[in-house]
Each structure stands twice: as C-alpha cells, then as structure tokens.
Amino acid sequence: MVVKAGERLPFYVPFPFYLAYAAAVLEREGHQVLLVDAIAEGITEEEFLARAADFRPDAIILETSTPTIAVDLASAKSLKQRTNARIILCGPHVTVEGARILRENKFVDFAAVGEYEFVVRDLVTALASGADASTLKGVLLRKEGVVVDTGRAEPVDINQLPWPARHFLPMLNYRDGNAGLPQPSLQLHASRGCPFRCDFCLWPQVMYNGGKYRVRDPKDVVDEIEFCLKTWGFQSFYFDDDTFDIGRDRIVRLCDEIKARNIRVPWEAMCRADTCDYAMLKAMKDAGLYCLKFGVESGNQETLKRIRKNLDLGKVRQTMRECRELGIKTHLTFTFGLTGETIEDVKKTIDFAIELDPDSVQFSLTTPFPGTDFYKNLDARGLIISTDWSKYDGNATAVFRAENLSPKQLENALAEAKRRWQAHKRFRHRIHQVKGILRLLVPPTQ
C-alpha cells in the first residue's frame, strides 16, 4: 500500500509524483497495490485508516516532508497499529533524518532514501521472498537492534519508469499552476534534476544526491499528455519539472510533437529565465504555452552569485520582455534570508519584482531544509533558532537568524513585499481600467 498523509494547504494540492511512480513500478512487478492520497480525497483520518485496514497490506509506503514530519509519523504509527504492516518511510526529510527516526520510532521498519521508485520495488520484493534487505542499496533498516545504512542507490533512469499510477487517484482534485491557468490541470514531468547548484534547493541536493539532469523522450511525454487529456478531460497541463527549459532542441521537438497531435489546451512550465531564448519561447507559445514560472529569488546580482544560482538579472529582464511580446504570462518567485543578504538587498528584491511586473508573484522566507548546504552553514554557526519542523514552510515564520538580518526583520520583509505587491496590483488594475475607458471614448483612427 502506498499512501500520502500529511497536512492540507489551501488552494495548492500538488500531485504525488514519486508515490504514483512507485505504485506504477510495483504494479508492473506484479504486486497488488493500493495508492491513497488522503489530502486530495479530503477523507477523514478514520476513513483513511479503515481503507488501509480493509486492504490488509504487508507493507505501507509513506512519503514524508520536513514541515509535515510530525503528522506523517503519527499517521505511520496509527497505520502500524491498525494493520501491523511493515512501515517504509521515504521522502526528503527521511533521507536526511532517517537513522534518527528509526532509532526513536520503533513502529518504523525501513526508510527508502533518495529517489525511491526502484528502491521500494526491490525492498518489497525482498520482503515478499524473505530475502536479506540489507544487501539492497538505498535502504535504512535495523539489524540486531542497530540502524544500518546500505548506501545510496544509483539515480533513476526516468525513461525506465512507467507513467504514474493515476488510476488510483482523484485526478480532478489536484491544483497547481499560476496566473489563472485553467483548472483542473494535469501535472507531469518531462525531466528530472537540475544542473545548477543553488545552496538552498532541497531536491537536487538531498533526493538526487547531485545526480545529473535527465530528460524523457518527448514522444513519450506527449503520449502521456494525450492519454490523460482524453481520460480525465483536463483543461490544461503543467510541467512541474525542477528546470524544464534545458536544451532548446529537445524543447522544440516536444513542442512540435504537441502541435502534430493537435493538442490545443494551455500549459505552463517551471523554468530558468536564462536558459531559454526567443526561439524557444516562440516554439513554446506556438504549441499553446500559457505561462512560465521562473525562480528569480533575488534582485541582487552578488546575492545570486553567492548562493550559486548565478542567474543573470539582465537576462531575466530580457526574457520578461520577450514573454510580454509573445503574450506569455509569467509567475516569479522571490525569497528573503539568502546567504549574506542585507536589508538593502531585500529592498532591491522587492523593487525588482515590481519593476518586472509579472502576472503573479510568490514571496517567501528562505527555508533551511535539513541536508542542504544552506542549512549546514547556518547550523554550523548556531544560527538555526527553531527545529519545530512544522514551521519550515517559508510562509510566515523565520526559523533562523541571517548574518545581517534578525528573524523579525525577515518576517517584516516578507510582509512588506506582500503589501507593496498588493498596492502595485491595485495601481495596475486602475491603469487598465483607465485605458479601457479611453478606448471606449476615443474611436480608433481609420
């Protein structure tokens, strides 16, 4: 049994990619599988536990995250009590903290670390046959009362993965996308990994262990899109890749395939602003692109260099101009508390966000997730002020002291950014209203 428990966030219900891939891999191997996403279904805890008990699983796989780990462990304990199944935890938090979690929580039997689709396949197969799981890579387990780490498995060849096991899930309940992307929206991956090395970024450092950037066959990607649109009637699709726009030739081939199938629904992708050019943007727009999401993070060039993002702000401006020219909507993300950031840098970032004038924007507090270089550097200097993991979501509460900014200054910066953005939106709306009135009053010239 493969389950997603955790907690709900309003207006954001992301698709559980890795659990759905793992379920599909297990099904392909002939295992009897049930995949439950309690969040997307909106079921009660009792309904969730009853469904698990009715299935009578031999093993239960749960994905964890840092902000939900307390809830995840409580769910795992309840599932153990109801089913007596072997409990296998996976996900970023367990990849870093797994040994401690196994020592402190006897109801947890195993952890599958890093990219786990094939790890759980091998582990479940070993458990079913009575084989020694300690010979497998990517597993934490107990042996004679001692937690044993078997070492990391190889990065997954994503072209060997089946499509996610969506048939178990309430597919029309998932919500992601920006700038008014029509919902419900299909979420899928065309690649995995990121060749860049931002010091705060969780998945490349922890889950992929620095693994290389991998891409799927564009034809198979569009086969998946076509099948899902016909099966569920999605109004759009969203490439929720780590970095979608690496390699112009591949992107153009993907767009050509979308056009060849006459797929006419809007779509969005998560990109870098300096890895796309006008030709790529034009190809994507011609294939139905609606919006691009760019992680800009800071309006200070030195800060971007310091955090190893190395994003060229001049190129960001250029890409934003080209998107506007082509009619592509944009969503930008910025974060406060980056390595070495000052109050002046914060002001530059807010000013830069307003200058760029995207269709929508997200401001957050930089989250020092365990396992990242950002966390390690702060922890080594005693700057982490809270290990209440439930606060590690970047939404409101600073969990560290920056070198040059207090927690209160960080929280105030976030509030100020949101205030100024809302004021900017109101002003922009009024300008559009005035322009509309002028068009009505002044007839076009012949």
UniProtKB/TrEMBL annotation:
Transmembrane regions: none
Heme keyword on record: no
Keywords per UniProt: Iron, Iron-sulfur, Metal-binding, S-adenosyl-L-methionine
GO cellular component: cytosol
One Pfam family linked to the record: Radical_SAM
InterPro entries: BchE-like (IPR051198), Cobalamin-bd (IPR006158), Elp3/MiaA/NifB-like_rSAM (IPR006638), Methyltransferase_Class_B (IPR034466), rSAM (IPR007197), rSAM_horseshoe (IPR023404), rSAM_sf (IPR058240)
Cofactor: [4Fe-4S] cluster
GO molecular-function terms, A-Z: 4 iron, 4 sulfur cluster binding; catalytic activity; cobalamin binding; metal ion binding
UniProt domain Radical SAM core: residue ranges: 180-408
Keyword Iron-sulfur: yes
Every B12-binding domain range: 1-134
SUPFAM superfamilies, sorted: Radical SAM enzymes (SSF102114)
Protein name stated in the entry: Radical SAM protein
Lineage, broadest ranks: Archaea, Candidatus Iainarchaeota, Candidatus Iainarchaeia, Candidatus Iainarchaeales, Candidatus Iainarchaeaceae
